[in-house]
Design brief:
450 residues, alpha+beta, four-stranded antiparallel beta sheet, two-stranded antiparallel ribbon, 10 helices, 6 strands, 69% helix, 12% strand
Length: 450
Amino acid sequence: MKDACRRIKRVSMEVTGKTLFVVFMFFSLAMISFSEAHAEILTLPEGLRLAAERSRIIKIAESEELISESDAMIARSKMLPEINAFLSQTSLAHQPAAVFGPQTVPVSERNFLSYSLNIQQTLFDFKGNASRYGASKAILNSKKLDTKRLRNLVAIDFVLAYLDLLEAEKMLAVADKEVERLESHLHVAKSLYDEGVITKNDLLQAEVKISDARQRLLTAKSLRKINASRLNNILQRPLLAEIEIMDINGLSADITDIDLEKAWEIAEKDRAEVQIVNETLRSLDMEETAKRSEYFPKLFLKGSYDYTENRYQVHEGNWSLSLGMGINLFRGGSTRGEILKLEFQKEKLLEQKNKLIDEIKLEVEKYMLDIRTARERVAVTGNAVQQAEENLRINRIKYEEGVGTATDVLDAVSLLTVAETNYHRSIYDLRKAEAAALYATGKELLEVYK
């Protein structure tokens, strides 16, 4: 009786364990299906935000901003009062004394306390300290502009990678459709061959074409994976992580309506690179002013209070106020050399600015022409796709009725594939050119793609 009870209990436990295992597996599969069904799709604005937040070069640039801000604080301190305090306790081996005839008179205590407090303020230095502070502020502005430049550089890199992935997905869909069309043709060819309408050569042609199309499909899948890994790399994600993105309908700003001369003017005004050069030139001008101030005197006001513990002295503590002037008479020509160096740096920077503006104009012109060419290609290839679809439909009907040949159908499939490929490439070439033109004219892409 006891053995029977034990067997029933053991069987009951096994059944319960299996039931729990089945329930657990069902729950896990349900959760996986739920997460896959509700997988978040990455949009272009969200991706741009993540790329900017996670970019290491932007974080480095922001650290440079903080360093320059500290330098500006150091430069500003030169224009503020300088306050110093001193405290000391002195112990002498012999008490100081003075000889007055036959007598020795002590003049100070052997152990005494002394302290002082003094404040000094530069009144006028021919804009020396003010120019140094202005130069440090200009350098800080240039660092902020460099962060803006790097943020836009990261943005255009992400946008182009995003569009490359979208284009790769379209190419994958085109390759998949080509395989489907060829398989459909092969099915029709087998039916006609079984009926004795065509020869086996038609079947061989279709099979060869399918093999070739499947190879292109594999290549398209590999290209899609590579572009997905590139996008993951920009976002600081694992390279092999799955990523789904959403297509974009267009831009929030139309760059194509701007005249080329106007685009050049906008680029020269808004490009961060040109603004950085302008701020650097401004800082050099202020540094030169600061250096020239060293030729002139500096006026200062100093007030202090000094106390020395000494019972032999009438006034142990005393106030003082001084108005002074200081000037350097000779430094061996170092100031003149530093001024010449700054002037040469400005000349060099002006040439670099002119060269930079010419390169930016060429860049803007190139992308504006790319936009115009891509738009014309979109219009042409869109009609070509419709014509290729109609051509395939007609050749299929003719082939199924025994009027056309298998070669005509296969050529029609190839023509439609080429037309669809050209159409999608022209669309994404247009979007890439638009993004590049916006970047070239100095637009902030984080604001454009909202």
